[in-house]
Amino acid sequence: MRGALGGTCLNVGCIPSKALLNNSHLYHEIKNEASKRGIDITGDVSPNLVNLMKAKDTAVKQLTGGIEMLFKKNGVKYYKGKGSFVDEHTVQVEPIEGGEEATITAENVIIATGSEPTPFPVGYHRWWYHWFGDGVCLV
């Protein structure tokens, strides 16, 4: 398991980007629309990148914590580690990030390996891009 519960969308994709996007829309509304709605703002209104990132991190942490709470509530045990099949019904878990070593035997095993992103299919002759591993920056 890499990172917190929830995968790419929750940890580094949809949720964090939408949290930042929502706050940028809120900033725009306050800066450009408040006076049209009868709200007077005195003084400067400016974004604070450090606090925007903290708010994004808080949203992600609350949602990943929610997944862990649902696991506990429903009696689901998960293991932080790298698993290898010993046989068709047994998995050996090598712990990572505070996980616990375990040998698990079950009739059915769910394998949730996550995925790796595919590099953006444009050539260097058309664009310059930098591949981050879980995202791409086009210039």
TrEMBL record:
One of the Pfam families matching this protein, by short name: Pyr_redox_2
Source organism superkingdom: Eukaryota
Domain FAD/NAD(P)-binding: 5-122
Family annotation (InterPro entries): Class-I_Pyr_Nuc-Dis_Oxidored, FAD/NAD-bd_sf, FAD/NAD-binding_dom, Pyr_OxRdtase_I_AS
Keywords, ordered alphabetically: Disulfide bond, FAD, Flavoprotein, Oxidoreductase, Redox-active center
GO biological process: 2-oxoglutarate metabolic process
GO CC entries: mitochondrion; oxoglutarate dehydrogenase complex
GO molecular function, one term: dihydrolipoyl dehydrogenase (NADH) activity
Gene3D superfamilies: FAD/NAD(P)-binding domain
Keyword Coiled coil included in the entry's annotation: no
Cofactor: FAD
Similarity remark: Belongs to the class-I pyridine nucleotide-disulfide oxidoreductase family.
Protein name (database record): Unnamed protein product
